[in-house]
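Predict the 3D structure for this chain.
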Amino acid sequence: MELYQTLILWAAGVMLVLLLLNLYIRFRVWKHYVILSKNKVDIPTKYLLNKAKLESEIIPKYPDFADNILAFNKHLQISLRIVSIVLVLITLLAAVIFYFRE
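Done. Predicted structure below.
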């Protein structure tokens, strides 16, 4: 098999992994999101990436849902890291494929 075809297969595999990770994380996040939204727990977007502010300002407002808030935040941050890494991999593979194309 040629290098070009191998790289195309790797890129397709990485995109498939990205899709599967996206679905997995969505199901993990969705469970906590449903609980929080049903109970009208409002978390402004600016708090989702700042755990210290989340713990100091949002969790005292909703102490009964602290576990769900923290789990929701954790899964969102993990998904952002994974997506960032996979997107960099896809970009690098695309650059290599472009370089080795026929």
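The chain has a mean pLDDT of 85.
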